[in-house]
Design a protein that fits this description.
Elements: H1 4-16, H2 27-36, E1 42-45, E2 47-48, E3 51-52, H3 53-62, E4 69-74, H4 78-86, E5 91-95, H5 99-112, H6 118-129, H7 133-145, E6 152-155, H8 162-171, E7 180-184, H9 190-198, E8 199-200, E9 212-213, H10 215-218, E10 223-227, H11 234-246, E11 248-249, E12 258-259, E13 263-268, H12 272-277, H13 283-289, E14 292-295, H14 305-321, H15 330-338
Parallel strand pairs: 1-4, 4-5, 6-13, 6-14, 7-10, 10-13
Antiparallel strand pairs: 2-3, 8-9, 11-12
Helix pairs in contact: 2-3
């Protein structure tokens, strides 16, 4: 929290309620503290002077920190809250913060906190992997390209687990101890995309009240995941191509070039070759990001894997609802197996 007065009020309130606290005023400081100490919970504002709370969340997860993360966001920024939850935040709270609500959210998050262990991680991995021939082929491709620095494009229908595949590539690479930054290109406006990717200096445009690092700089040494890359404007595609070819970026409004070392993993549920033919996507950029292609199969083509997913979600629901369901009724399972799952794993 960069508002030190508010941060101190939070600290006093949480200490009074028997919590030990430490606070940071920016992303860089928070990441440094996280590298030195272990915490049961992370509470972060979304907007910070040198970035945002999602960067802290991403860096924490990439470093193996499994503590629950609660994001504070302004009342009218619901989209950010939803994105935070999708990226793994356990909850969010809107500002101005109600103390009773905050205490309830903190206590709930701490109660739900699961102790990390290898068997849990293996269980999640096996759940996504599946055991079908098509799943084996997919993971042989991931195992093959992960240790390299090749740019990868992941293609698949919505809900097939493209970000999960990208994270797996990162965790099996030599960059696994550095940042994994995911950007939803579909959520970036044409004007914001360049600033988000490459950063800006104070005064670069109306509302640029301070210098801001772009995600290329934040991900330096690590992996940058560009989800729905086909939604980037043509102008931003030109800048992205230059960043990939020359390994330098130029923040908006700056005359300085910044060297970056980032591996790019892109994802799309569109056929980019059609976008190229329609003049909406640059062919040279396509070849630059498509050094290796991974095609994620839709759920309807994964055969007996569906049974594994049914069992997984049954067990998950048992834990969440405190039930002990052993199996699904035959007629119900027949409906699930016959259904074509247009929303794939997400559905």
């Amino acid at each position: 929290e960069d508002d030190t007065t508010f941060a101190e009020l939070l600290e006093v309130f949480l200490t009074k309620n028997k919590h030990e606290t430490a606070f940071a005023t920016n992303v860089k400081q928070a990441i440094k503290i996280l590298a030195q100490e272990n915490f049961d919970l992370l509470l972060t504002d979304y907007r910070l002077p040198d970035g945002n709370g999602l960067e802290i969340l991403t860096q924490a997860r990439a470093s193996g920190v499994t503590s629950p993360v609660v994001i504070m966001t302004s009342f009218n920024d619901v989209r950010t809250a939803v994105k935070s939850m999708q990226m793994g935040a356990s909850d969010y709270i809107t500002k101005p913060v109600n103390p009773d609500e905050l205490l309830m959210i903190v206590n709930n998050a701490l109660q739900k906190k699961q102790t990390p262990n290898d068997s849990k991680n293996r269980e999640i991995t096996d759940f996504i992997k599946g055991k079908s021939a098509i799943a084996d082929k997919l993971y042989s491709h991931i195992d093959l390209v992960a240790p390299t620095d090749m740019s990868v494009i992941i293609q698949g229908e919505s809900g097939t687990g493209k970000e999960y595949a990208a994270r797996t590539l990162h965790l099996q690479s030599k960059r696994k101890n550095k940042s994994f930054i995911a950007i939803d290109c579909g959520a970036l406006s044409k004007d914001l995309a360049a600033s988000e990717l490459f950063g800006h200096v104070k005064g670069a445009f109306t509302g640029a009240l301070a210098d801001k690092k772009g995600q290329f700089e934040v991900a330096n040494g690590g992996t940058l995941f560009l989800d729905e890359i086909g939604n980037l404007s043509y102008e931003v595609q030109v800048k992205l191509l230059r960043a990939l070819q020359e390994r330098v970026i130029q923040p908006l409004g700056s005359t300085k070039q910044v060297k970056v070392d980032v591996r790019i993993i892109a994802a799309t549920n569109d056929d980019l070759t059609k976008s190229i033919a329609d003049g909406e996507f640059r062919e040279d950029l396509y070849h630059r990001v498509n050094e290796f292609k991974i095609q994620l199969p839709p759920l309807r083509e994964r055969g007996n894997d569906l049974e594994l997913f049914i069992n997984h979600f049954t067990q998950q629901a048992n834990k969440e609802l405190d039930r002990n369901v052993k199996s699904i009724a035959k007629d119900a399972k027949a409906i699930l197996l016959k259904y074509d799952w247009p929303g794939n794993l997400r559905e």
